[in-house]
Amino acid sequence: MTINQAIRATGALLAITVLPAILGCAPPTDYDTAALASGDPEVGAAIYAFECASCHGVNGEGSAAGTPLVGEVATMTDDKIWWVIAYGADGMPSYPELTDDDVGDLIAFMRATF
Q1: Total domains in the fold of the chain
Q2: CA angle 69, 77, 92 (to 5 degrees)
């Protein structure tokens, strides 16, 4: 991991964990936990290709526009991944149009792949 990637990852972690505490709110957990737990990695692969690969790379290697996911996904909880997708972080836009089922499928794909 380069220093730039480490700084971006630290910024994302702070945005997810520390900022809500400073602002007096916790990350919402108003999602369907069953949907996150029962994701379909094949469906997630199609969503990833359409929504994520242009920035995070086809193989999760990252690009100038998005951080690498290889190795990073394993360090994040499903809650954190959901938060980043739903609300965005560290330059990543939010994707409120994705349903909990979509996010569950994405998480299943990313956990199986990265």
Answers
A1: 1
A2: 45
pLDDT per position as a tens digit, 11-56: 555 555 555 544 444 455 566 677 777 899 999 999 999 999 999 9
Distance from C-alpha of 104 to C-alpha of 98, rounded to nearest angstrom: 10
Each residue of 64-83: pLDDT tens digit?
Answer: 999 999 999 999 998 889 88
Closest CA to 82 of 25, 31, 14: 31
Q: Identify the CATH number of the domain in which residue 15 sits.
A: 1.10.760.10
Q: Where in the sequence is the domain holding 53, given as residue range(s)? A: 3-113
